[in-house]
Structures are given as structure tokens and as C-alpha cells.
Amino acid sequence: MINLALSETQLAAFKEQLADGVIDHDGLTADYDADTETYHIETPAHQTSVGADELAAVDTEQAAYITNWYFYTHEVGSEVTRAFCRWLEQAAEHPVADRYDALEAGISREWGQLAITTTISADGTRHYEVRHVDDRDADATALTTHTDPFDAREIGTLDPKGRYRPLRTAPSLKSGWIFPDLSAAEVYETVEAFYPATVVNWDREARGELDVDHWRDEQDRQSGIYNLITVLPDDAVDWAAAACCDDSQCLKRREWQLSENEPLAAEGGDGVFPCRGPCSMAVAAGREWAKLERENTQSYEFELTPSEKEQLEAVIDAVADDEIDEIREADVSKGANRWRVRYLREKRVDEDGNLSGTPTHPDGNDESAD
Amino acid sequence: MQSLVIVAHGSHLNPGSAKPTHDHAATIRETGAFDEVRTGFWKEEPSLREVLRTARGDDIYVVPLFISEGYFTERVIPRELRLEGWDPELWDSEGISADTATLIASDIDKEVHYCGPVGTHEAMTDVLIRRAVSVTGDEDVGEGFGFAVVGHGTERNKKSAKAIEYHTERIRETGRFDEVKSLYMDEEPEVDDVTDHFDSKDIIVVPLFIADGYHTQEDIPEDMGLTDDYRKGYDVPTEVDGHRIWYGGAVGTEELTADVILERAADAGADIGNARERIRQRTKPATGTAGE
Ligand code: SF4
């Protein structure tokens, strides 16, 4: 195990705490017997009773538990940060002694597209490194170094193609950066800046206190231009959740349903952190879907070859699954290949943009989605 | 522990919309006046609905980075923050005098101080004047200059014009500029005809908007004739009909806006020490030229 040394500050804090009461923390119990001037310290492998001047020389296992107590009670500010840091080092699964061994090498966990590695220094202080999961094996010197947690917001603003990311939990975070050494408070702020409110909601969920706002709650609350979503049919809510909240689009695990008693059929996803209610993007999209759903269906007759029909389906898939960029220029066998789509347009779409020359509103009725 | 929570509109389309909010949050963080500064948005994350749970303070001050009282400050924000018992009457304002109301936010079962919007605070007048300085690069700008404060107009929100008129009057009262007028985008007197409304050769034009976006970067410059295509940019100043137009862009991007946010919180009881003086020092005018 790492060669731990209890500092003067840690010892002073330990004594001060025991002067007022006992310690019962993460496998460590300790108290002070004023009559015999003895500290009783119990950890899984050792039970000792020592005087004040022997405290500094407790065995490594006990020192680990004491530094662990000190770190979590004196260096980590809030309860949420504490819960998060404990999750980062898998505290629930590993007792302190094992954990310290693992922390020496570094314990890594994933939070969305973040890889967060916790390490420890000789006084038990944790250090946190954050990088993109895709940079897991990259040499740190090849990545751009950041020290200010609030830089994370800027990094997360544009995707790798330079497009704005209005949904911070979309799986489109760019890579190439690193926060090499953050404190507990800083790692919390960094994650908060990348993925706002995900830690607090995860924490509420872990305590069994996540307050979920279901779609119907959202519908009831909307006013102004958004009350259009009140007319969105229930089936459409399921399509919307499947379209927008899927793990391929958003890394939150959707916990909201149509209502508490009406679950949606769409998958909620496997994300670590929950989504507790339709986000503003989902609501804005819902408003658009509501407009579309007001239209009636209409029968059209098109002439297409079987391959052309399949090509249209392939184009839909390529756009929906964001695969356009993967289709090579010359791969004209792919339905969504640009040349092939242009060929289809030349052949099947007239100068007014109508597929097969079939007007959208054959009876001249110009009923549109607006 | 004191927390400041700045709430703003944000955008799904324009990454610049939230920038002033984040910039001012950073400026205030640097002063150390609050133990934490959080931001929340209607259209971005964290949402208004979840921002309070990210704040840890015992004393929480919520300041809307909005230009005027109205739909957002009176309905959307209190509803989304879940302020129990909210009623616009609590602000006892006819449109420009909202100060603060203290209510329980049911999301966190704690009291929060809900402040009036930044745009209607008297200190916003100083920010407008500061923008005149930064856009001209002249510390003493005033004599020989006209000053136009530009707003949306009343079409969407009656109270927004009140904020414009309020600051126009206050700037006029300083006697610093030869002429000071309110102009609007969708009603008379219109910003399109800016040169008709001023005798002064030099006219400073500053929209009372929080963030730069379509209106301040595309609409207004084109409507005033600074450029026929906003993408080509324009000079500051630009010569139009024999006048020189010094167009400043959205006033909310001026660094000194951070000071108004602090004032709002201080008015609601926050202990901000000497943070205001430090912000005033720190945000000394640059010889900036918007639009380049
Ligand atoms: S509603 Fe939730 S899960 Fe769906 S896209 Fe928005 S944040 Fe993601």
C-alpha cells in the first residue's frame, strides 16, 4: 500500500473530533478515553489503544482509514460532492484498504463521455483527472491541458464539427482535452459544467428522492406558445421519446413516462444519470410534432422501382442515424450516397420539387403544417 | 453560505445567447462576494427547473438577467423555480420598480430571494453610458453626441418600452449627451430612421438587449443602413445620411452588467462587501469597436 503519513493537521483534526465525540466512518471507529488518555482505534484488521504521542505512528492500515476520514470530512465540502467522489472511487464496493491499493494505480469511471480517474497522494488527498472517454489511451501530453473547471462549459459548447450543442448530454462531446489534476470540489464543478445538474439528480435518485416530472405534468404546466404540446397524441409522445431520448441522442437515462401510471414503450437508455423530465429541447420538438400531428393523412400514388423505394428508406436511416459522413464518395451502392441521391432526384423529382411529379396538395388545398 | 443564481433565456440555436450570463457569472465569481455563482436557463442547461438544486447556499439570491418585467420574470421563472405563493403583486411594480420577494422554492424547500430583472435597475443606466465610452473609445464622450437607446417595442411586452424610456430619461438627466432618445424595432419612433431623429452628427446607438443575436447583429445594423448584409460587417462609426453612427450592440454584453447583477442581489440583502467597486475597476472601458 501507498506509504501514508498522517500530517499534523490531520492528527489535530482527529483529536479535536474525538474530544467532542466518536468517529464512525467508512470502516473506522474511534473514541477517546479521557481517564486513561487513550485513543481506541478500530479498523477491519486492527484494534489499537494508543496515547496521543503514539498516534502519528499508527500502522499503515489504520493511517489509511484516518486519512480517508479526514479527506471526506474535511476536504470534501458538500454531501453531493462526497457522494459523487465516493462513487468515483467505488467506495460502496471496496473497503478503504483495498481502495487505497487501487487508488495508487488509479480508479477510472465513466460519466457520460467523461472518463474520470481518481488517484491518491501520501496524505490521502484524492486527485481527479478528467478526459474524454475516446482519449482514454491517449498520451496526456497530446491533449490540451485545462485547470479551470469552468473551461468545461466552453469545451462542451460546440461538437467536433463546430456545431452548437444545445443539449449538453448529447453524445457529441469533442475530445482532445484533459483536466489533469482536480480537487474534489473542482471535479464536481467540471462535471457540472459539462453535464449540468446530472450529479445532483443522480444523487437524489440514489437517495430514492428523484422527483420525476412526467409528460402529462409538463403538458399541464406549459403556457404561452408551448401549450400546443397539450394536443400531442399519446402515441406521438412514445415516438418522440424513442426519437430524441435514445442513448444515441442523449446520454441521460429517461425516467419520465407519459404519466406515473402510463409507461412509455420506448427504451429509457442505460445512462448513469437520470433524466427527470422532458428537457426544453424535447418540449420545443414536441410543439413541432404537435403541429405535424394536426394534419390528416392523404393517399398518394407514386411510381418507384423496388430499389428506389429502398433507397428512400436508406436515406431516412442515414439521416436519422447520422451516418451520412460515413458513406464514401464513390460508394454509389449505398442508398444515401450523394451521387445516387442526386441521380434519384434527377429521375423522380420534377422542377417543383414534387416526388414523381405528384403534387403535395392535389386538390389545390394548400393546407400546410403551420 | 451565500449563493447567487443568475437566470437567463438561453437559446437552442445561438451559442452566443448564454455567453453574457456565463461571462458575468465568471466576473462575479472572481470577486469572491458569493460562495458560489450558478447559472440557469429557460432553453439551456441546467434548466430553470433544476438550477436551484445545484445551489448549496443558505441564502440564495436569484437574479433574472432579463431586460424588463413581463412574461418571463412574472410567470415563467417563478413557475419553473417553483416559488410558492408567487404573485407579481409582491414586487409592487408598475413595470420598472420590481425589487425583491422572498419565497420558499418547493424544489429545495428553502427560502430564496427573487430579485427584479437586471434591465430595470437604475445601475443599468451606468452600463449604457459605459457602452457609449467603450464603443467610442473616449472616456469623456458626450458633448456633440446623440444617444439612442433601442428596444423591441411594446408589441410583445408593454413593460419593455417602460424600461427603455426609464433609462433614456435617466441618461438625459445626466446632461452628458446633446440628445437622448428611445427608438424601437417594431413601433415609432423606429430605429430604421435613426438619422431623422437626431440633429447631432454623431449618434451612439445601444440596444437594451441582454445578448447579441439575430436582432442586434442582423436586423438593427441592416435596418439602420450600416450594411446591406450583416455578414459583411460594418465600421464603427459608419457614415449614414451625413451622420456618424456608433453602433454598440447589446448592452448586456458590457462587462459592467455584472455590477447590476450584484446590485440586485445586494438590494435583496446579499452581503457583497466591496465587490461592486472591484467590478467597476476591473471592467474599465476598452477602446472597443463592436461590429468589426
Ligand atoms: S428529455 Fe431527457 S432524455 Fe430526452 S433528450 Fe431531453 S434530456 Fe435527454
Total helical segments of chain B: 8
> Structural class, from secondary structure content of chain A?
alpha+beta
- State the order of secondary-structure elements of chain B, H for helix, E for strand: EHEHEHEEHEHEEHEEHH
> What is the CATH domain class of the largest domain in chain B?
Alpha Beta
Number of strands of chain A: 11
**In the CATH scheme, what's the topology name of the largest domain in chain B?**
Rossmann fold
For the secondary structure, the number of strands of chain B is 10
Residue share in helices of chain A?
25-40%
- Under the CATH scheme, the architecture of the largest domain in chain B is 3-Layer(aba) Sandwich
Give the amount of beta strand of chain A, in percent.
5-15%
Please state the CA-atom Rg of chain B, rounded to the nearest Å. Answer: 19 Å
Q: Approximately how much helix is present in the residues of chain B?
A: 25-40%
Total domain modules of chain B: 2
Q: What's the gyration radius of chain A in Å?
A: 29 Å
| SS-derived structural category of chain B | alpha/beta
Q: How would you describe this protein?
A:
The complex is a heterodimer of chains A (370) and B (292). With 370 residues, chain A is of the alpha+beta class. Chain A has four domains: 8-75, no CATH class; 79-206, Gyrase A, domain 2, CATH 3.30.1360; 215-293, 2-Layer Sandwich (Alpha-Beta Plaits); 306-369, no CATH class. Chain A contains twelve helices and eleven strands. Chain A has a five-stranded mixed β-sheet. In chain A, 29% of the residues are buried. The model of chain B is unreliable at 288-292 (pLDDT under 50). The longest helix of chain B has 17 residues, at 158-174. Helices cover 30% and strands 20% of the residues of chain B. Chain B has helices at 19-31, 48-51, 71-81, 123-136, 158-174, 214-223, 257-267, 275-282; strands spanning 2-8, 36-41, 59-64, 100-105, 110-115, 145-151, 179-184, 202-207, 238-240, 243-247. Chain B folds into two domains: 2-120 and 256-282, Rossmann fold (3-Layer(aba) Sandwich); 123-253, Rossmann fold (3-Layer(aba) Sandwich). Chain B is globular, with a radius of gyration of 19 Å. The interface between A and B is medium-sized, with 28 and 25 residues. The complex binds iron/sulfur cluster. Iron/sulfur cluster binds next to helix 10 of chain A. Iron/sulfur cluster is lined by residues 169, 244-245, 250, 252, 254, 275, 278-279, 281-282 of chain A.
